[in-house]
């Protein structure tokens, strides 16, 4: 067991290491003086700010020391939580911006992932091998899973917010309110949350439903299902068993999809101007704020790695086969 | 899209599937014909194929017939569809139809290039890792696992952001080089099961070189699986490109469906009610990718008799 | 008579038309009898086995009846058959290694299965323990997952589960084809033991391995291309077969007890006819050294000696 998780952790550590290295390398591969380039692109007019930025970058990049030392310095700054200063929101530290944005992104992502996974699996299992449902409703699943996240977001925003006026179009809460725990403010938060959540939920739901439908069809054809049927087990029992076994690859599927899902959340936030990580990325790109962009990148990698680790742990808890194998290896 | 698990392993039918109807000898000879026979009768496959081909023709031929520039300001801004402008104009007076046709073209280009590249890399890594085993497998597997957990889109965003000039080709190249890991993993596990079969052993014992065994004995035996993998990679590349374009990291010198969406949002098409600006591009992407996915299910049913409903 | 099959005809639906996998088969299995069912792949032996317990989605019951202990089995009606499955007719499948749900503890799976038939696990727990003991499995296996058992253990576990409710008829479908020689023999002996102890009243032992069948079966029935070719006491089939096909089959074995029967069967020149449009008359005609004009008509199964049926004009 320890060996298994040790190996997993090693992979995650290597992944993080690779991500940080990519992050460090990319600006250095770009032609020209990276600092001049960065400051010039920053389009900050105030000379004092330019000087401050120059000094900061020089310090951070440390171009006058050997390459390996630059690399170590980069790690040093990173471990101190120093991701540099944002250009877009100068002089706010990048880490502050990220910490402020993260709750919004998580508030969208976590409920959308969990609910769509649960509902999609249930629905897919229900539709499988029921001809009428399979043929009429599952095509909808295919359309949903093929839909780009931002497009569904646009359609929802246009139809339910602009045309019908049921929900607000953008931001996380009404600007006329100041953040507090008042019911009025919470209500505004909720109203602004519904559409981005719904659009994330729907696209993911389609994917899970189809994945489960296809998996369960294989499971229902599996030998253990045929054996149960030959011995006259109730249809419900056979389906329950097939469902349990089909859920396992869906857990792995969740881990594999995390990157795509996060990207989906980012573009959804952009459509709704929802002040999460995705909104930060858009601002960073528009104002050529590379420190912000790189900081966000590291945060996303870190978040995905943590989520992967949680999924791994859950999987070993749920699948007796891995559990048995791991215990056998540990003993 | 839970791509990886949408394709389950094709027919690892352990032994002669029990309940196979009386199988007289000539059946083996008819197998190729059988596949085609079922393929032509599979509604999902045929329907998906028709949609994909129709859109492909639209993307390839469309810009040749409808020769308006997708980027020039040609007409009155914000025209609704109909009359002179079949699909209306943007708020700068660009021809939405021309944008859509050019966008479709680059969508197929990105899908074919990015998906094709990812398929080649994924297969190469999967074959070698699965067939050679040992240290090679260990190293390739580690690499695959690392790339599998890195959120590739985030990497793409970083890379693309630093590139001053971006083309559809470069975009496809980057997508191809980052989206292969799951395919490699799937191909590897398939190769593992095939590598232990008698006919592969026989080839190995008679001194056939590795690459020949892979191309002659292993790959053809999982060709259906490889084809389905390519289709999923194609769809994935299209969606990844659309996401990049939408964030504002799309081609700087061309038109794409994702870029149309990006422009529409940036210039408040939503608030201005210019729905004809953002509905067609998304619809185009959804149609291409959705039709590919449906095709894939159809293919799965054709290749795996157990899934056919009769 | 425990089992009485009359004129049973079962087809497979395919897009090209009906494959007549089982064409008017009539036979009986007595109480306490083990019937060995032999034939090449495609002879209809597996189709027959499945028809008696559960047809798959492509099979159609076209005609004929199956009677078990005087009651007719509704073999074409999947729902109605459920009442008979497990309690009256049970199956040890070919795929015993993968017949157990990988993610359920074995004991829990048994309990769930029993529950489907309204049988309380508690009420059979003791007997289950005794039978596990009989096949030399520790009672702890019930608390384990299939992955924790060896192949042989899984095989024995499935044998115990399938016979737990003392079915009247047990169908053992190619149970030995995946096993090595010594295990094959052990499995066959165990099955015979189940019959001797009354766990099952009668048994149909389907195999392509005539020599193995000979060791445990009382009667052997040879099928060819969806029809009965010959049925006789086991010794008679092996030592004095009358049907040319059975003869070829037996002759192709260097001596009784030698393995690789399947390969030898394929050694008979020619191949079975297509069952999509089977030719009129005797289906072995094209491969038969004795074929003559009269073989253009379908030969009826004639009782040439007590308990010895042969479907051949020359016999």
TrEMBL record, chain A:
Coiled coil: none annotated. The keyword Zinc does not apply. The keyword Oxidoreductase does not apply. Residues 102-311 form the ABC transmembrane type-1 domain. Keywords: Membrane, Transmembrane, Transmembrane helix, Transport. Its main location: membrane. It comes from the Bacteria. One of its GO terms (cellular component) is plasma membrane. It is a multi-pass membrane protein. Belongs to the binding-protein-dependent transport system permease family. This is Peptide/nickel transport system permease protein.
TrEMBL record, chain B:
Residues 10-27 have a biased composition (Low complexity). The keyword Thylakoid does not apply. Gene3D superfamilies: MetI-like (1.10.3720.10). This is Peptide/nickel transport system permease protein. It is found in: Cell membrane. The chain crosses the membrane at residues 45-65, 85-101, 108-131, 143-163, 225-249, 274-299. It comes from Thermocatellispora tengchongensis. Belongs to the binding-protein-dependent transport system permease family. One of its GO terms (molecular function) is dipeptide transmembrane transporter activity. Residues 1-27 are annotated as: Disordered. SUPFAM superfamilies: MetI-like. Keywords: Cell membrane, Membrane, Transmembrane, Transmembrane helix, Transport. It is a multi-pass membrane protein. One of its GO terms (cellular component) is plasma membrane. Residues 104-296 form the ABC transmembrane type-1 domain.
Automatic annotation (TrEMBL), chain C:
GO terms for molecular function: ATP binding; ATP hydrolysis activity. Keywords: ATP-binding, Nucleotide-binding, Transport. One of its GO terms (biological process) is peptide transport. InterPro entries: AAA+_ATPase, ABC_transporter-like_ATP-bd, ABC_transporter-like_CS, Oligopep_ABC_C, P-loop_NTPase. Residues 3-250 form the ABC transporter domain. It comes from the Bacteria. This is Peptide/nickel transport system ATP-binding protein.
């Amino acid at each position: 067991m320890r060996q298994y998780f040790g190996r997993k952790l090693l992979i995650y550590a290597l992944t993080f290491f690779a991500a940080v290295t990519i992050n460090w390398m990319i600006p250095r591969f770009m032609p020209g003086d990276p600092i001049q380039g960065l400051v010039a692109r920053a389009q900050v007019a105030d000379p004092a700010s330019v000087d401050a930025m120059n000094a900061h970058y020089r310090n951070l990049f440390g171009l006058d020391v050997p390459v390996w030392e630059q690399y170590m310095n980069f790690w040093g700054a990173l471990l101190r939580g120093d991701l540099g200063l944002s250009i877009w929101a100068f002089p706010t530290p990048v880490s502050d911006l990220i910490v402020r944005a993260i709750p919004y992104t998580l508030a969208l992502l976590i409920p959308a992932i969990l609910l769509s996974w649960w509902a999609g699996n249930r629905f897919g299992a229900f539709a499988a091998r029921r001809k009428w449902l399979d043929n009429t409703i599952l095509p909808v699943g295919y359309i949903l899973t093929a839909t780009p996240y931002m497009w569904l977001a646009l359609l929802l925003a246009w139809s339910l917010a602009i045309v019908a006026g049921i929900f607000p179009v953008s931001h996380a809460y009404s600007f006329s309110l100041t953040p507090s725990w008042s019911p009025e403010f919470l209500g505004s938060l909720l109203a602004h949350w519904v559409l981005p959540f719904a659009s994330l939920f729907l696209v993911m739901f389609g994917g899970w439903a189809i994945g489960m439908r296809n998996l369960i069809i294989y499971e229902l054809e599996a030998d253990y299902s045929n054996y149960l049927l030959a011995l006259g087990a109730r249809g419900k029992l056979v389906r329950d068993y097939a469902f349990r076994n089909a859920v396992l690859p869906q857990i792995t599927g969740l881990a594999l999809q995390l990157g795509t899902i996060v990207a989906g959340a980012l573009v959804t936030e952009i459509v709704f101007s929802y002040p999460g990580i995705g909104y930060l990325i858009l601002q960073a790109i528009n104002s050529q704020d590379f420190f912000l962009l790189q900081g966000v990148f590291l945060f996303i990698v870190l978040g995905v790695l943590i989520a992967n680790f949680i999924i791994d742990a859950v999987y070993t808890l749920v699948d007796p086969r891995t559990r048995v194998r791991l215990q056998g290896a540990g003993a | 899209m839970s791509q990886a698990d949408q394709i389950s392993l094709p027919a690892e039918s352990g032994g002669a599937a029990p309940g196979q109807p009386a199988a007289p000898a000539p059946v083996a000879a008819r197998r190729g014909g059988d596949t085609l026979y079922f393929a032509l009768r599979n509604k999902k496959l045929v329907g998906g194929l028709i949609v994909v081909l129709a859109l492909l023709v639209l993307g390839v031929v469309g810009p040749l017939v409808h020769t308006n520039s997708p980027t020039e300001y040609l007409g009155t801004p914000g025209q609704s569809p109909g009359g002179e402008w079949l699909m209306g104009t943007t708020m700068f007076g660009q021809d939405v139809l021309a944008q859509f046709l050019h966008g479709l073209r680059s969508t197929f280009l990105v899908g074919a290039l990015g998906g094709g590249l990812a398929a080649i890399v994924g297969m190469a890594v999967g074959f070698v890792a699965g067939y050679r085993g040992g240290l090679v497998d260990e190293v390739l597997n580690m690499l695959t696992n690392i790339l599998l957990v890195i959120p590739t889109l985030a990497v793409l965003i970083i890379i693309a952001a630093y590139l001053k000039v971006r083309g559809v080709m470069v975009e496809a190249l980057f997508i191809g080089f980052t989206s292969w890991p799951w395919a490699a993993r799937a191909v590897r596990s398939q190769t593992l099961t095939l590598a232990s079969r008698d006919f592969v052993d026989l080839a190995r014992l008679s001194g056939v070189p590795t690459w020949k065994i892979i191309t002659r004995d292993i790959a053809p035996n999982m060709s259906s699986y490889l084809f389905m993998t390519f289709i999923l990679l194609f769809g994935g590349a299209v969606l990844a490109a659309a996401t990049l374009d939408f964030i504002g990291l799309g081609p700087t010198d061309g038109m794409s469906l994702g870029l149309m969406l990006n422009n529409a949002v940036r210039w408040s098409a939503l608030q201005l009610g210019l729905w004809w600006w953002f509905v067609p591009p998304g619809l185009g992407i959804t149609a291409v990718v959705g039709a590919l996915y449906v095709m894939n299910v159809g293919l799965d049913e054709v290749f795996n008799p157990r899934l056919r409903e009769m | 008579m425990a089992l009485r099959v009359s004129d049973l005809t079962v087809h497979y639906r395919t897009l090209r038309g009906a494959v007549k996998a089982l064409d008017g088969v009539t036979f009986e299995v007595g109480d306490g009898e083990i019937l060995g069912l032999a034939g090449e792949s495609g002879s209809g032996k597996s189709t027959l086995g499945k028809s008696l317990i559960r047809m798959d989605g492509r099979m159609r019951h076209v005609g004929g009846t199956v009677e078990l202990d005087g009651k007719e089995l509704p073999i074409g009606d999947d729902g109605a058959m459920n009442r008979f499955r497990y309690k009256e007719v049970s199956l040890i499948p070919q795929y015993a290694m993968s017949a157990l749900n990988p993610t359920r503890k074995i004991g829990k799976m048994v309990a769930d299965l029993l529950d489907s038939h309204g049988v309380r696990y508690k009420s059979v727990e003791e007997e289950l323990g005794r039978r596990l003991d009989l096949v030399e499995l520790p009672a702890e296996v019930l608390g384990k997952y299939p992955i924790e058992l060896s192949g042989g253990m899984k095989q024995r576990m499935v044998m115990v589960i399938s016979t737990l409710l003392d079915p009247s008829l047990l169908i053992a479908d190619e149970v030995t084809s995946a096993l090595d020689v010594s295990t094959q023999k052990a499995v066959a002996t165990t099955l015979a033991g189940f019959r001797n102890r009354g766990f099952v009243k009668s048994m149909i032992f389907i195999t392509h391995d005539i020599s193995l069948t000979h060791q445990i079966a009382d009667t052997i029935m040879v099928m060819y291309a969806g029809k009965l070719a010959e049925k006789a006491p086991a010794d008679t089939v092996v030592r004095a077969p009358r049907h040319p096909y059975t003869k070829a089959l037996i002759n192709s074995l260097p001596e009784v007890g030698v393995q690789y029967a399947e390969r030898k069967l394929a050694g008979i020149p020619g191949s079975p006819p297509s069952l999509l449009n089977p030719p009129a008359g005797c289906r072995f005609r094209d491969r038969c050294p004795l074929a003559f004009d009269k073989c253009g008509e379908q030969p009826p199964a004639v009782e040439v000696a007590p308990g010895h049926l042969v479907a051949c004009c020359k016999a």
